[in-house]
Amino acid sequence: MQQTVKIICTNLGDREFEFPMGITLREIYDALQINLPHKVMLAYVNYKAESLSFQVFRPKIVEFLDASSSAGYRTYVRSLTMVLSKAIRELYPDDILRVEHPVSHGYYCNINGRENKIADDKIERIRERVRQIIEADMPIEIHESPKEEAIAIFERQGDMDTVYLIDRMGKPFVTYYSLGRFYDYYLPVLVPSTGYLDLFDIVSYEDGMLLRVPDRNSPDHIAPFEKQPKLFGIFDEFARWNALLGIVNAGDFNRSINTEILEDLIKVSEALHEKKIAQIADRVIAEGKKTVLISGPSSSGKTTFSKRLAIQLMTSGIKPLTLSMDNYFVDRKHTPIDDEGKPDYESLYALDLQLFRDDLSRILQGERVEIPTFDFATGSRRYNGDSIKLNGDSILVIEGIHALNPEISKGIDPAKIFKVYVSALTTISLDNHNWISTTDNRLLRRIVRDSKFRSYSARHTIGMWRSVRRGEDKWIFPFQEEADVMFNSSLIFEFDVLRRHAVPVLETVPQDCPEYAEAHRLLKFLQYFKSTNEVGIPSTSLLREFLGGSNFKY
Q: How many helices (H) does the chain have, and how many strands (E)?
């Protein structure tokens, strides 16, 4: 008699089913006829991501995910990256592909470095070979072998960046993938075969190329191209700076860093931040601006940036005055409702726009204006007699997530306004094919900060993150190119420092809850970095906003 195994499927209201032992997740999905809105990409098995080729031998809780989910989107893009890598290896065996960062709703790639522009006919050949591999529906096979065997495979392929990465892990066995005779290494799971990846394009972009992928919100279509020269420029600047330091990937960092080198790297990184902030302050003054609007997504370091910018303005004889957009919230009973029927505090219309614009206009005209204070305890706005008046030697500094939205400054003379976008735009990668998401950078910062200063568990922060990201996609990212300048708050050494704080917090997430999948993924990601101490990180560092030890008041 054939043995069976019990499956609880969350997609079908936690109903229980019996299947033959050894059945794959893809076979279960087909048998249950779940039919997700979009193509299925992977499944959470006992709240851990697994490939659809995963075989089930014991009772499991299973949730299938399509390309519209964060995990499904990651699976699609990483799998497509492997196909691109194989195509280039076949066509140009001596070339080195590097996938760097997201931009223009795709992923920027270069071949043999940024100094070597990729010819259009070469891009066309690569695109056609990728298409052929996808149409062949080749299996993407998963392997697990002793670390020494895996290292030997990647050494033979010449992928020393991957060798350095997996050698750091300190684990006896390594999981990796093959596509024909081509091997590659990825942190997330991949799709079972190339036929899943029917939506893509590859186009020329700056000095490299752009891998175009499905739209996160509508994964049956390729994401619309959007020119983002300012975002690309700041990524490009920091990537070139990393290359000059010789630290492009995590493996480079782990191989070269000791206490003395780390202290020097911290000093150089912090000095670069200070130089950039000073340049922004000088530009604000030189252009005769009277107000600075500062925006950025969650955990980007906006608050510390604002305080450091104020200091730089003061060194030039300018008196900065601050105005918080949070004080212009409408009373809680008037807060807009989101699609899930919950108060949408991220909405632009959670602010009293007209009052804010009227006050800003009067302040810029030189009037003394009484400004409100929002009482978060009562959920209402009140006036305490606080006022602002700009003088000849003063500049108004305003921080808020909606600061770059044109509606905020509607009717205000643009000649008086300077806009800054702040975000942690990560430029170090795990290896040449595994970039680090800027979202992961900010989430780790927030997990550490919430645990230290807000008494929130990692489970709580992870649970809220989807809502936070939804608000950013709607209210922040569409306006980032409105900025006069972008400031990259990431620090090349921060993952090593964050690991020390984040790992103990992430390990408290229970293994029997939905948030565990994300906690488990982040823990796997952090294992690629050394855990270093905070010696040498100054009290003015943007990182102190999340670690503690800052000399600024928040």
A: 15, 21
